[in-house]
Structures are given as C-alpha cells and as structure tokens.
Amino acid sequence: MAMAAAGALPAAAARLGRAVAAAPEVRLESVRALAGLFREEQPREMAKESIFRDLLEILMSASSEIEQADKDSCELVDRDTCLLLIAECFRCLRNACVECAKNQHVMRNLGLISTSVHLIKLLHGMQIKEELLLTALRCSLQFLGNIAAGNGDSQKSIWKCAFPDLFLTCLTYSDEKIVAYCCMVLFTCLNSEKVRELLYPGNLTVALHVLKVYKEQLESEWSFLIVTDHLLKCPELVKALYAKLSNQERVTLLELIMEKVSEKNPVTSEEMNLFMRHADFLAGCFKEKCKAVLKLTSAADAEDEEALVTIRLLDVLCEMTSNNGQLEHLQALPGLLETAIDTLRLTHLAGKQAVNIFTATHAMTGQEEISHPAVGFKSHLIRLIGNLCYKNKENQDKVYELDGIPLILDNCSIDDNNPFVNQWAVYAIRNLTEQNERNQELIAQMEEKGLADDSALESMGLEIEKRDDKLILRSSGKSPHEQNIKKSRIIKRGFLF
C-alpha cells in the first residue's frame, strides 16, 4: 500500500501542477488525490517543494476569489467550491506535516504560515456560518497545529503572525472544534517566555478566554493542559488572572490548581518554589475572604459564589499542607493558622446560635446524602490546623494561646455535615500534643473538670493518668487508626494530611 502510494506521487504532483490554472473543480480533485497520498509516510518524505508551491498558489488564488466576491456582490464566484478547495488544501498540507520536519521547514520558508493566518482571518470575517466555512477553518487550524508540532521555528513563526489576534478570534468561536483546535495550536506554541507575554496589556485576555473555554467545555483537554502545564508555571500570571475572574471562574481556576498540587509525581526544586509562591498568594486570599463562608448560614445564600471560592481556597490549602515539601513554608506563613482557628470558631458559634449547615447533626439513616457546598468545611479547617501543627512547637503553642484546643475538642462528635470530623480532630489533637507537655496537661485538666469528653479522648487512643498529683495524658495503647479510620482511607503519611 505504501509502495503504491509512493509510486503514484509523481503523477499526482504533475496533475496538481497542471491544475493550478484550471477550473476550481479540477483543482479540487487534484488536491484531494494528494491529500490521500500524504496519509502515508513514504510519499510525505518524497514530496518536493514544487508541490507545496502549487498548493500555496491555489490557496492564494481561492483567497483572492473570496475577497473579490465579498467586495463585489455581483461577481459570479462559486463560493462553495472555493471553500471546499481551501479545506482540501489545508488537509493536504496538514497530512504532509505529520512527523516530517523537512516538509514543515519547506512550508514555513514558502510563507504558508502567514498565508494561512491571513486566510483564517478572512474566513472569520465572512458573514456566513455554514458547514463548509467551519470545515475550512477547522482544517486550517489543524494544519497550524501540525506544522508547529515539535518544530520550534514554526512555533515562533505562528506566534509572530497569529498572536494575539488569531487566538482572540478563534477561542471565542461558536464552534467547539474550532475552539479545541485553536487551543491545540496555542498549547503547542507556548513556552515559559511566551507565557510571560500573556501579562502584557491586552494579552491577558487570551489566558482569560482559555479558562472560560475549560469552564464551559469540561471535555477540552487542550485548555486543561494550557492551564496546568503553562499558565500555572507563572505565579504573576495566576495573580493577574485571579484579579480579573468572576467568582465562578475563580472556583474553576482553584480546581485546576488542586489538580496540579494533587499530582503524585516527583517535583523539581523549581516546581516546589512555584508551589510555595502559589501558596503565599492563596493563603492571602483565604485570610482576606474567609468570613464570606458565614453567608452560608442562610439557606437563601446556599450558593453564594464568594463563599464557594473560600471553600475551594481551603481545599487547596489543605492539599498543599499534606505535602512535606510545601508544609514547612505554609507553617511559617504569618496569620494562616490564626485565620483557620478564627474561622473554625466563627462557624462553630454560628452553628450553635441557629440551625444551619454549621450545626452538628447526626440524624441520617446512612443512606441519605447532604447536598450543600459547605459540607465538610469545619472538617477541613481542623485538618488544616492539624497539619500546620505537625512537628511544629511554635504553632502548637499558638493554638494553645488562641484557645484552639477546647474548640477542636468541641468538634469531636460525629457530624453528618462534616464527614470524618472526628478523625480529623483526633489527628489534630495528636499533632498538638506530640512532645508538648503544656498542651497535654491542658487536655488532662479539661477532662478532670468535665470539660473534655472522656469518650472522645478514648476514641483518640488517649487516656488520663494521675501520677504524683499530676495529670498525665498518655496513649491508651489502642490505635485510633484501627478503631476509627481503617476504612476511611484518609491517612496520607504519618499524622500529616
């Protein structure tokens, strides 16, 4: 099959050369035949520059005919055939680029990239949205994607000709395939230097459009990759984007950040530095907006968008503190631990003052599910506090001084609105008392005075012992992991989640 295709190439190339000046229908058939041959590797490797010169001439001729038809409505031009011809030329060029650097270089040097970008803009300006036009646009973008694949010179050429105008045009197109192929081209061309160009005035809109594409088309793999593999590698860009986004879009961005920080792949020191810079920014956002979650005490505000952002910020911070590499940095961030304790206190108080999503409840049959965005919020606050105190004496003492220990102990009971809150409280207390006699003594005194629930301590694998007129908090020898969490699968490493 491949040998037959290679043998047919010279005749097909000669037919194309003769068809350049022929009627559009004749040109169409000759281009279509070549496009089929270029599906095979050998004809691609054998292709001569003259073939691509002829294709360029046919494209420019079809482009001129369409431009003339738009200027002179009386001009009798078969627009449908022109659009079919343009689409087939791009299919032919697209196929010829596949894993063939030689053809990529020849096409670029002939000026096919700039011609294609011009033609895309021309097609976009046509006052029709029929399938033939959409097909021509899709094929043109596929060609740009293929000529850029693995070819730095082509990527630079596309960027020079197309950025930002072509991307601004195609990312907002009503056709999902055009948007997807545009994202493919953008992803292929981006690198760290070009990502920084998105910060320039006017260019940030391209990044905003990519995020909107992901939000509206969740199946768009290319938009996901643009954000996670490129945009998130520039903390300044993330800050600039965040400032321009609606609350709904901020939630989307935070979910993408969550995907990235949740990856289990080993990270370089450079990547770890990026994560820490993101952590600084997100912790600042959480400290600024944490009280927004209290809006959820009203059933009418159950979908308050600012509150939803606060919830997602907490989710990301919890995930970041579960990573040893980022934990130490977050433990030292001024105000983060204090904010978590204050927010826990405010939500806990709000749940006691009136019945709402922050009120502890245990009335489920075990088969129902509570559908509310704030489900688990207090659990995650306790998780964050516990992680920030992991092997950190300064933070352990800070929680003591802020009366955070009684607050956490008051959240040890089973709560349907906060799944696993008991388990998170268990490990927060263990992290708070590890090699910290003052915190241990406080809990022991609370238990003796009836201020701490003995059954809660037992569930933590802890018990109070009186020794020489001094109360000692010690392990009961029963593992809380075996008792409570064996099936919950929430332990990640040691006492750090």
For the structure shown, list the relevant keywords.
497 residues; mainly alpha; two-stranded antiparallel sheet; 2 strands; 2% strand; elongated
Structure, described:
It is elongated, with a radius of gyration of 31 Å. The protein has helices at residues 2-19, 24-37, 41-46, 49-71, 79-97, 101-110, 112-124, 131-148, 152-162, 165-170, 176-189, 192-197, 204-216, 221-229, 235-244, 247-261, 269-289, 305-321, 324-331, 336-353, 377-388, 393-401, 404-409, 421-433, 437-448, 454-459, 480-485, and strands at 462-467, 470-475. It is built from 27 helices and two strands. A two-stranded antiparallel ribbon has the order 1-2. By secondary structure, it is an all-alpha fold. Strand 1 and strand 2 (470-475) form a beta hairpin. The two termini are 58 Å apart.
Quick structural overview:
The protein is mostly helical.
Number of helices: 27
Strand order of the largest sheet: 1-2
Q: Count all strands and give the number.
A: 2
Q: How do the helices and strands follow one another from N- to C-terminus?
A: HHHHHHHHHHHHHHHHHHHHHHHHHHEEH
How helix-rich are the residues, as a percent range?
55-70%
Structural class: mainly alpha
The rough form would be described as elongated
Give the CA-CA distance, first to last residue. 58 Å
Low-confidence stretches: 479-497
Strand proportion, as a percent range, falls in: under 5%
Report the average pLDDT across residues.
88
Main sheet characteristics: 2 strands, antiparallel
Q: Please state the CA-atom Rg, rounded to the nearest Å.
A: 31 Å
